[in-house]
Design brief:
Elements: H1 2-10, E1 23-29, H2 35-48, E2 53-57, H3 63-73, H4 82-106, E3 110-114, H5 117-127, H6 132-142, E4 150-155, H7 158-167, H8 180-196, E5 201-205, H9 210-227
Parallel strand pairs: 1-3, 1-4, 2-3, 4-5
Helix pairs in contact: 2-9, 3-4, 4-5, 4-6, 5-6, 5-8
The chain binds P1-(5'-adenosyl)P5-(5'-thymidyl)pentaphosphate (T5A).
Residues 29, 31-37, 58-59, 73, 89, 114-115, 119-120, 123-124, 164, 168, 175-176, 209-210, 213 line the site of P1-(5'-adenosyl)P5-(5'-thymidyl)pentaphosphate.
Length: 233
Amino acid sequence: MVIYKNKIAGISGSAVDNASKGIFITFEGVDGSGKTTQIKLLNKFLKEKGFNSFITREPGGTALGDSIRKLLLNPENNGPVARAEALLFEAARAELTEKVIRPALDKGKIVICDRYFDSTLAYQGFARGLGIDSLLDLSLWATSGLVPDITFLLSLDASDSEKRLDRQSRKRDRIEHEDGDFKKKLQEGYNELAGRFKERIVLIDANKEINKIFCDIKLKMLELLISRGWLTQ
Ligand code: T5A
């Protein structure tokens, strides 16, 4: 597993197996940090440029993944123990990676995924206290080593996340009901990941206006497309 970690730290934004023709983009952040909003803007922008991109999400994106999502996020359900929770997220991820993400990348598509294994590292590894290293190993096993090319981490304080969740008309899911301590730990966990995987994770200030945030994301995305030879300067 040390090999995996060295590779992740060292290869600067490429999949560990690095065999695919496509580009794998993930979005991360605390609940309500604006991932969905930015993902839609990015997908529209990429399509307007003529790229074959699509959006998927975790947990979800497959029949099994959607069932696991319902099981894990339903506020009526009693929460599973932390290890069971982590394994269920990994099961949904294994299914999504093998059935949807890898085949699309192999066809040269751009896959934009709303959350991926950094969520497990921050939520279950850091905030639930299971440990980042063991869950990184498990995530790499579940995905056969598929690491995003780039991860946009939308950084938002726990108190601002709470305010946004309160303003939403929909009911909170089970994990969004967690207390303030859990949410503070989450942002700390994400900060640790941003420090550890500097080559892959782009930290974005999610407190700015929606369009300003998108400008930051677009700039990084253009850099990546140019560096891959998908666009010329
Ligand atoms: N989970 C997931 C784990 O614990 N482990 C795992 O391994 C995985 C994969 C998934 C839950 O499961 C957990 C994490 C989550 O708790 P989810 O559907 O991803 O659930 O949940 P959320 O992240 O909570 O998704 P949301 O849709 O609620 O949040 P988004 O997508 O981050 O934010 P968005 O774009 O919907 O915006 C939220 C609100 O803020 C406004 C929007 O209009 C909206 O009302 N907004 C802004 N307001 C002001 N300024 C801005 N810049 C704004 N941008 C958006």
